[in-house]
Amino acid sequence: MDIFSDLLMGMSVALSPVNILYLVVGALVGMTVGVIPGFGPAAGIALLLPVTFGMDPISAVVMLSAIYYGAMYGGTITAILLNTPGDSGTVASTFDGYPLAQKGRAGPALVMQAVASFTGGTVGVILITLLAPLFSQVTRSFGPPEYFLLAMMGILTLVVMIGGNWRLGLISALIGFALGTVGVDLETGRSRYTFGSAELIGGINFIPVAIGLFGLGELFYAFYRGIHKVDSSDMITYDRKNNFWPKAQDFIETRFTLVRGSLLGFVIGVIPGAGAAIASLVAYSVEKSLSRNPERFGKGEMAGLVAPEAANNGASSGAMIPLLTLGLPGSASTAILLAAFLMWGLRPGPLLMTQNPEFAWGLIASMYFGNMALLTISIFAIPVFVMILKIPYRVLAPVVLVICTLGTFSVNSSHIEIYIMLAAGVVGFMMRLYGFSPAAVVLALVLGPLAEESLRQTLTISRGSFGIFLDRQASVWIIVITIVLVVVLPMIQLIGRRAREGKSTT
Length: 506
What we know:
Strand content: under 5%
Number of helices: 23
Strand order of the largest sheet: 1-2
Mean pLDDT: 77
Structural class: mainly alpha
Low-confidence stretches: none
Oligomer: single chain
């Protein structure tokens, strides 16, 4: 009964007129950001973070969270209409989404992806409601050793799973760690890597780095690929009047797909570093293997679109559990949300739901209404987003550049942070070009200082002995889980990939 009473209290917070307004704004911004190819939730949250200064913390987080899971809805619109995923989490949606559009079923595909996204998001929020308090109780016994191991687990799993090459992912994480060491060492009081600049004494601000890596970096990469030369208006095939709504057969054939994709996505989303991209690809593979007609996949099969869509939205909900109960972000987007929490003086972790119940449960309750709003927007505002797709990229890009600059300068009115943003933009472009992981940089930048502090506290408690990690049962379990995630799962993926390659050659 405590869960339901807490949820009702959270709904009373989420249903305030101000929070509803910011929820709708966040949903619209998230979908718009998702529609723009190459951007995504991390870029949208980073760009809007400076706008939230001075806002009520609950309203601000409700809006930023809506941007986070709303971008998953919007990213599929380009995947279906242009065969261009708006975010890595919607890559699998192109496999059957675009062939459906080529068959003249763009309308049903867009509606079914909205229904699948709503189902995955709603199932995920229901599971958050039931499991988050349990996770919170389990983690109350965690101390500095466990928090250090959790931070390292999140970074290592992200390095292995997101980086196409684990060595490049590791280098990306080390860059983030290096940026996190800039500033004053709180233990010794000495300045580290400030180069005599007074503005760097407080460290490198998270916001200009995130805006540069995900905003400018993606912008430069889009220009490199020549998107500004492409006229997208001739590529879009969409009919609002004829053949818009799905058939009853579409819902009947995918009813179990919706459930499987949602549950699988949520479970994978809870794993730090896994993310929506892996969840959607795994769900697509599972659905294809279970199908009676696997040969139809890749040629316009509705289940091939529904499965990854339900999974990536279930994963975005699942990622909120380690964020809220452990303070452990599993992706670039949740890392930015963690930075926002810390900026407002809120420390996600085992005590968040007891010390700040209105904040935690208000956020969870807002996700129920956010998914309802996104379902409505997805279906009835599709023509608006199609119009956005027709805006030439050479017109859209300068607007994004101005927003990046103004957003960075508005934080501290610092010219140095603008230079940091520009440098991060160049670095972000080079990382995308050569296969490095900007997400690993962001995650290490956020978790690096927390990991350093926890390690120092741990060694102080143990008087310099690393044996404390093996003396505590919780630490041992975290080490075992980390080994499974970092070593066993990649081996399973490698074996599966080689098996598929063997089948394709025979």
